[in-house]
Structures are given as C-alpha cells and as structure tokens.
Amino acid sequence: MEFVTICRALARHKPLIALGALLAILGGLLLAGVLGVGPGSSGAETTAVAASRVQLDFPTAIIVDVTSVHETIPTQAAQISDLVSAEDQRVAIARRAGLPARDVGMVRPQLTQLLALGQLADRASRVAAVPVGKRYTIEVQAAQNLPIVAINVAAPTRGEATRLSRATIEQLRTVAASRGPSPKRALEVIALDPVRAVVVRPPDRWAIYGVIGGVGFFVLWCSALLVLSGLLRAWRSATAAAVAHAASA
Fold first, then answer.
1. How far, in Å, CA of 58 to CA of 47, rounded?
2. CA distances in angstroms from 48 to 1, 18, 22, 186, listed in the order given
3. What is the rounded distance in angstroms from the CA atom of residue 93 to the CA atom of residue 140?
4. What is the value of pTM for the model shown?
5. Looking at 92-147, which runs of residues are DSSP E strands?
C-alpha cells in the first residue's frame, strides 16, 4: 500500500521524474566512460600472456638412441630452468628482447606437473597475477619427471610477450650449451610448439560502477522529490490554516 502511495506521489511530478531519469542515464554513461570522458574512459588495462614449451634432449635424440643414458635429463632441465632465472640471465633476456632490464621480472622456477598447451588461460591468470611490480614477467618451470620446460610470459602487449618468450628460449639454448662438457655433448633446447599469445582483458569495473551510480542517483532524485513535495504540502497546509484562522478572527 505504501508503494502505491509513493508511486502516486511521484506521478504528480512526471516532468521532474523524466529529468531525473535522463540525468541518471547521462551520469551512468559518463561514469562508465561510454561518452569518451569520465573515470572509465581510459578502459581496463590489458595483459598479454605468451606460452611456449621446449624439450631438452641430447644431440642424438633419446627416442632414436635408446642406449643413451637419459634419466638425468629432467634433473638437468630443472637446473637449467633455475640457472636461466638468475639475475644476469634476466638482464640478458631483456637485452635480447630489446626491453629495459629494470622492467623485466623473473619468477623463480619450481617443479610442476606438465601443463597442456590448451590450458593457456590458466597460465595467463597465474602469471599475470604475480605481484612482482614489473611490466614484464617471465616464469620458467620444469615439468616433473619430464625433460620439458614451460615458459610463460606476461607483458602489456601481445607482440612484447611473444618477443620476450622467444628471447627466453634463446637464452635457454645459450645456458644449456654453456653447461655441456663439450658442444657435441651439450643438451639441445627444442621448441615443441610455436609461441602462442593471448590478451587477457579483466572485467570492466567502471561499467558496473556506471550502472550502480545511475540507479543510485535516480533513487536519490526520487527520494528528494518526495521529501520536497511533502514539505511543500505541509507549508501550503500551514499557510492555508493560518489564512483561515485570520479570516475567522
């Protein structure tokens, strides 16, 4: 019953209700950045993530030479992953990619279960969320019990992420070659698949803020109309009573 009463009271001020609705819509669009100005006009920051996998193997592949001793390759892969995450290697990777070394962060590797290439979104969310305070993030992880290394890179653009991923692979080759007892016995780094990159777009919170702001403004506008109309009626009633009292006297 009270809701019906409120609606009837607001119906007496249709032009003002329409004006409030128009202002609420404009305010919501302005807050969301749809009009090209306002807090949300810059849009949400995006992050590009590149993922690639490489395999460490002997010059003569273990799949061909079944007599070779290959049990230590997974351990060597983990060691090389750790070596390439060192400070000097980080600087070398940044130099290869043509990026400022101060903006490149390296996540120390740990043994992990091998991630399928199709789980790129999972890698993206994990690497992009690393709070290293850097524009570019590199994560090099060795798969558990396998001679495979996963390289995940986060960067502002897809091109930079792809370039940084390729630079990391090249640096892995350099480190693997330098650790071998001889060039013929050094481990080779073989790319299992091309570098794949995606752009991660976080939810645009300003659009939600625009809806909430517009609805909130309209509710406050209607509430103000009800309060002002009530005060106006009370003032008119008091004035009419005063006039009637003066006339009767």
1. 36
2. 55, 44, 38, 33
3. 12
4. 0.58
5. 104-107, 136-142
Locate all alpha helices (DSSP H) within the chain, ordered by sequence: 2-11, 14-32, 73-83, 87-97, 120-128, 158-179, 205-248
Every domain of the chain with CATH number 3.30.70 lies at 47-200
Residues 6+ apart with CB under 8 A from 105: 90, 130, 132, 133, 134, 136, 137, 138
Burial (Cβ within 10 Å: 0-12, 13-18, ≥19) of residue 191: middle
3-state secondary structure of 136: strand
> How far apart (Å, rounded) are the C-alpha atoms in residues 102 and 134?
8
Per-residue pLDDT of the chain (249 residues; tens, 9 = 90+): 566 676 776 677 788 888 888 888 887 777 776 666 656 555 556 788 888 888 887 766 555 444 455 566 777 778 888 888 888 888 899 999 999 988 888 886 654 444 444 444 455 445 544 444 678 888 888 877 778 888 889 888 888 999 999 999 999 888 888 877 666 667 888 888 888 888 876 666 767 777 888 888 888 888 888 888 878 777 877 777 766 766 666
Distance CA 30, CA 210 (A): 7
Residue 156 and residue 48 in contact, taking contact as beta carbons nearer than 8 Å = yes
Contact partners, residue 241, CB within 8 Å, separation at least 6? none
**Residue 53 parent element (H or E):** strand 47-57
Longest CA–CA span in the chain (Å) reads 123
Write down the residue that tokens 């460490």 correspond to: 56
Q: Write the class of the CATH domain 47-200.
A: alpha beta
